[in-house]
Amino acid sequence: MNFLTLLARNLWNGPSTEAFPFGPAVTPKRFRGKIAFDAPSCEGCKICERVCPAGAIRFTKTADGLGFSCWHDTCVFCGNCEFYCPTKSVHQTTDWHLSHTQAEKYSMVESGLIPNQVCVECGATALDTAPSVAAVKPPMSAEEVADLRGRCPKCRAKFLKARRAKS
Ligand code: SF4
Ligand code: SF4
Question: Which parts of the sequence belong to the 4Fe-4S ferredoxin-type domain (predicted)?
């Protein structure tokens, strides 16, 4: 293709680049951006913390429960946490708006809390984590899962044992 044809084609097609920051920028659907955490669906297994190569994810025991934090300025966007999370409670969004001032660096964090609860059966204080029931046979109904959720780990195990014995 000669130069003039190429020039004419490029003029006809227009710019191939994004107009950003003076116009919208297209974000690919599979873009690996900011981490988001959904505490109610988290099982509290801490796999995400173990597989994070950057040490960006931390769980901290507090008086109110189990705190989750993910530091966006430490994350390397590898996707390990989402890949290994059994419930996808931690996942990558397509949000890439991460530029920040030096003063904001300590607030670039996604945080959440799995609160404490009182076990409906024995009264012990335990975390209100989502029960891990994906492999339970026969599959549990939503009512059973809600019932199980209100219990501490020991009472959950008893509940599941009694259910197995019945089936
Ligand atoms: S976010 Fe997922 S991997 Fe991390 S503790 Fe919760 S359930 Fe486990
Ligand atoms: S995407 Fe990778 S570096 Fe970022 S929090 Fe998840 S596991 Fe850690």
Answer: 33-62, 66-95
